[in-house]
Amino acid sequence: MNDQPFPDTEIPDDATDQDMKVQEPRLWCDDGWTARVIKNQDDDGWAVEMIMDGEDEPALVGPWTMGRDKKNPKPLDASAFYTLVKTASEVLRRHEQQLHAVLHKSLKVRTAAARLTIKLDIVPDDDNPSATLSAFDEGGEQLARVDVPTSYKLTPESAADWIASDFKKPGR
């Protein structure tokens, strides 16, 4: 006999359908998100995971409040669900911003003649990753573009060296 006030809930096979709404104590599916209260693997408590529809991994996993009986989890409700959606969306947005910053670097270099913008753009492909180093004048016109290894480090010094070499492909 199950002594829990509600049984563990499985996500229906069609829960990723945008029209699917599930509002159960341990499972909510709505607005492209699924919130599931799960047993915390690290202790006796509970956790909640937020999974965006179509994704395999949760965008957010965090502690979940115990219910009044101090044994079972507090049921999900609309307010908690939408707070979790907002938090998980913010986590994804920050992750995307961080990834963009890693893959697209830019810096300004002042030379005797002009102020240039040097950009390093990396394309992370499992089979054929690539990187491009490019220089632009103040008007945004591209002055040079070369392929570089994805391990190339764009620094003020490496940019100045590239400009000084008249934009020849760096030998790194």
Topology diagram in text:
Blueprint: E1 22-24, E2 27-30, E3 33-39, E4 46-52, E5 60-64, H1 78-103, E6 104-110, E7 115-123, E8 130-136, E9 142-148, H2 156-164
Antiparallel strand pairs: 1-2, 2-3, 3-4, 4-5, 6-7, 7-8, 8-9
Question: What distance separates the N and C termini?
Answer: 67 Å
- What's the shape? elongated
Q: Which series of helices and strands comes N to C?
A: EEEEEHEEEEH
Number of helices: 2
Strand order of the biggest β-sheet: 1-2-3-4-5
Helix content: 10-25%
The structural class is alpha+beta
**Estimated share of beta-strand residues:** 25-35%
Q: How many domains is the backbone divided into?
A: 2
How many strands?
9
Query: What gyration radius follows from the Cα positions, in whole Å?
Result: 25 Å
Mean pLDDT: 88
Largest sheet: 5 strands, antiparallel
Unreliably modeled segments: 1-9, 14-18
Summarize the structure.
The protein is an alpha+beta fold and 172 residues long. The protein folds into 2 domains: 22-100; 111-164, no CATH class. The chain has helices spanning 78-103, 156-164, and strands at 22-24, 27-30, 33-39, 46-52, 60-64, 104-110, 115-123, 130-136, 142-148.
Would you write up a description of this structure?
The protein has a 5-stranded antiparallel beta sheet with strand order 1-2-3-4-5, covered by helices on one side. Strand 8 and strand 9 form a beta hairpin. It contains 2 helices and 9 strands; from the N terminus they run E-E-E-E-E-H-E-E-E-E-H. The protein is an alpha+beta fold.
